[in-house]
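Quick log. Single chain, no ligands specified.
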Amino acid sequence: MRLRPAGLCVLSIVGGVVTGCRGNDSNRADSAQALPPVFPSAAVNTGWNSEAGPLMIVSSGSSDTVGVVLPEATDSTIEALGKITPAVAGLTFDLFGRGGRTATAVPATAIVQTDTVRECDTWPMARLRSVVARGNWRVGFVSGRVQPVQLDSIEALTGADSAVLAASLARTAATLAGVSDPTFKGLPFRVRSAYAFNLDTVDVVVADVMRTVNEEANPRVEHLLIVGERAHGSNAKFEVGYYNRSAGAEEATQATEILTVVKIGAAKEPAIVVNIEYDDGGKLGLIERSAGGKWSATWRSAYTDC
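-> predicted structure:
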């Protein structure tokens, strides 16, 4: 699924069957009708790092129209967003992709929602007013709130280095504990995507590793999202700091796309921004590293499906 302003997961990170991470949120409440306030006090999505700003934007994949991600929205309150004009007036945004920051201080203007008949849940919309070359950006934060971290894809490594890293990740995936569908027992893992980045004292790799059962009548897939790290410049094995396992029917099992990595606030707390893809929608999420060096899924957005 392509990342769209209304088809985002994320961030999350903890959907489906999860091992070694937080359980999925099950907050439910009656939908609010307008802002302010948008959300009933008993139905506020928690875990968002306020140092990252009051909201986030996501690329639509085309033109300058963006989705405005309201971090406090839940699966229950997202329906009300179709009647909301997002509060982006006066804000500028830094735009980020896997290559780091692609543009700085891009102003935005809200798009007034006129379609009140919706068949799916989506984020409110805005339009970027600047015509600067923005490159392949995926998410935007209010200017000055986060700093970029550049990712290096496994595909950019030399053939030998790429093969060594892929083999290491596959072996690591095979050793991780947790309940796995017995259908996959003994089957090899392969690396769907992998990115490496540096955090001063440590080198980090984040990868989506998968294996499949290619039965024509019932194709099945298992995904493992793995975050590992080792001392900067070391050739030692990456030690797993976080992982998330999901398995099931091919068309119904979530897969995770890495969108960018940033450092949040004055403390420069590292955060991986992800899109958790489902068959017909998804969520955005954050996986953050604490000052003590522990990685954990801290926030995921409401589910959108168009």
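The chain has two domains: 9-146, 152-275+283-300.
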